[in-house]
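Handoff note, outgoing to incoming analyst
You'll be picking up this chain. Sequence as last confirmed:
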Amino acid sequence: MPRLSFYLFLFLSLCGSLSARAQTDAQADAAWEQVHQLRARYAQPDLPAEDRFAALDQALDGLRALVAQFPQHWQRPVWQTELADLLLYEWLTGPRQHADLFVEFGLPTTAQRQAVEQASLESFTALREARRAFDRLSKELPAQPDHEAQRVQTQKWPLWLAYRDHNLPILTAKAALLLSLLPADSPALKKIAAAPPWLPEATNLTLDNVRRRLREDLAIDNLEPLTGQEIPAPLRAETTGLLARALLGLGRGEQAQPLLAELQARNDLLGFTATLVRSRVLFGQKDFEAALQLLREPAQSSFLQSDPLCRLLLADAMFLQHRAQPGHAQDPSAAYLPYDQLLGAADLAPDLRAGLGLWLGKRWLEADPDATDPKLLPPLLLSAVAQANLNQARVLARPQTNPSAAASPSPATGPASPALPYYQRATALYENLLARPELPDSLRAVAMSDLGWGLYEQNPSDVTQRLRVAFLWTDLAKRFPSQPISDPAITHAVALLRQLRSAAPASPEQRQKIDLAYQQAVDVLFSLYADSPAADEERIYYASEVYEPSGRFTQAAELYNQVPADHPKYLLAQVARLYALWHAATAAGPTTQAPDLQALAQQAKELDQRAAELRQRNHNPNAQAVAIDAQARVRLLLADVALTEKNYAAVEAVLADLEALVAKQPDLLRPTLAKRVLALQESGRWLDALAAAGRFLDAFPQEAAPVLCPLLDRLDNQFQPITTVVMDGRTAQAMLQSAGELAERALEPQLKLNLAPLQRQSLEFMLARALIARSRNDQAIALLDRLLAQPPQDAPSLGRLAELCFLAEELNPAYQNAARDLYTRLIQGLKPDQPWWWAAWMRRLQIQDQQAGTNTDQEIFLAVKQLEMIDPALGRDPFQSEFRRLASRHEPPLSPPASSSPNPDP
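Most recent structure output, in case you need it:
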């Protein structure tokens, strides 16, 4: 753009050429030089805009400080002129985005109006002071003795006079012109009207008179004398353009038109402004079509192509002329077409198109957002307005929204929220847009996406609304797979539905809708976006959360196998694939699982090797963690395979160094220790299993119950009469010692072990057995009494409690009676083909034998004979030999005939 400070750099260079000057001059010149450097920084096009604008603000502050600190300095009016120049040209054009032109020819934003008001008033005031100072110093300075040496010979004086005679009147005219454009409620215009500083004799002027006098007395009177002078070309062009604008404002378009001919040929801001002025002239002459045609002509100029804001200003001018035409009411929508043509221009870069759309939308919100019928707006403009409403809703909702509480109702969009009307208006506008059948696919896709966000953000906890949003995004992705917005849309839809699946639905019907929507979204994702990161991620989730829970392990394995090799979770997906195949093989039954398991084990070993190689060659911490995780999981799988095949030595080999490898990863250490306990237990290495269970209890006390209780149950069964296990007394004593210590530790209150009632009972049974065996009588009695206070109801637990009482009869004879009663309950509640029935009869008769002492009890003999009628083998050993011993001991000399009852009376 033309620079009014044509003499600035010459003036600065001359100011810096003096070798001797007063200290005040030196300080002022140093500050003046700093302003020059800041202006030069602002002029660098390769710097980011925020850096350039910051330099401009600093330059303005520097000039204001110069003016304030050196009120008597002879260069002060030059500084004031430069301050006005920066404000009226650079500041309004750059940081405030052509605010002066939008106020004069377009639809300015509130910020632009305020900027013009601020800049014009500050400049006007500074220039009035500069005018007085120039007039005074023009007489005083030549009379000073050092004037010739300090100013004339250094060539400062001619430049100083050029500022007075050229820059000052042009800037005064522009400030006056901008002031005349301000609305009636403008404080700046009211201040000027109250006491016009250039018309001290004027009083009680109307605002219209003030505007006219600003244009006539200040704009035209300052500019017309310059048109006949020999001044630099940039200043002459600016003078001509401003004079034409002032004449236009006074309704003297015929006088303005000849001034515009030369300017209109320029391919710059002055030429563009001249086109706007000339179009206004033609419009004033009621040549409406010619006026609009003139605005259409510069649309393809290289200047406009480089300045999108001027393209927007051109659309504004066309809009205003359309709306001001007499026939506007017959086709009101035609006025808005220039905006759609602007936003749809093929040469407009996507980021510029988005920026202009945001500008249009924000400007719309500053006006009455409901003043215009949305049906009048063309598609692109309507989309921009809807987007502006959505953005404003987000701004208003953001301070109140807690992102971590997405599942709870958001106060940001409650009934009293200031954001809610904007959300509602945005969704209504998008729905209006989507109802148009001629909408391009690209715009329809974006509208569907944004409508979904608007609906979702109004109330994120509304399940029905979230389902509608998911269906909308899924439909978008299905219909427009080639649109850039479709990939994120289906990604968000699937994620949203996954959240809904993980939450408890309000009803089975709602759950069915969620599952249906999720399945539809996944089908679209896998079929149309199969190569997307979202699809890769969803394959892992879908296989683990949908296929595997429903027993479709083969399909799950196929899905895991589709995760590409460069995916961050590839190794873990491969481990999951092997687990799915393992579940499929073991679920198939023993006749078909062996070959599958062998192949599976081989694949697992290969994957283990691949993970080990990754650990060796990739030292990235994240890659190392993934490799360790994969190795651990695949070895756990190999352990499962070996356990299934009862190859306990192989389990030990697989887990040999795994505990050290995952020592700092609880999620992997936990199953490693648990599988070691299981392998030792299954192989009958009870003492080793108890020691391993102790390590598990040390590491994971809160989660030890599922590991400890099955182990102690299995071990306790070794001591029950229903088993055929025979062990020497030393081994039994060692096992009871270790098991009792483990059970006692697990029951310590400070561990706060999460125990279900049956798990606690299991630990207490084992502890009681160990206490009895170790003669810790008081503790054993206290524990037995507590167990008898609430005896269990199931047969196995009842049998175990009866056994404990049977063993404890030496501690208290009452326990023998309690045991007899418990065995009687078992006999009455079970049938002969159930395990505890024969054991209960054996113990019941043993107690009766002990109570008989040295006497013969014929009832015992008769009971055994009756039991033989049920099963001649008497339940087989260990029961048969004991029954025969008891019968022989109590056989009477002459036995009476046996009863015909098949079930003896207990």
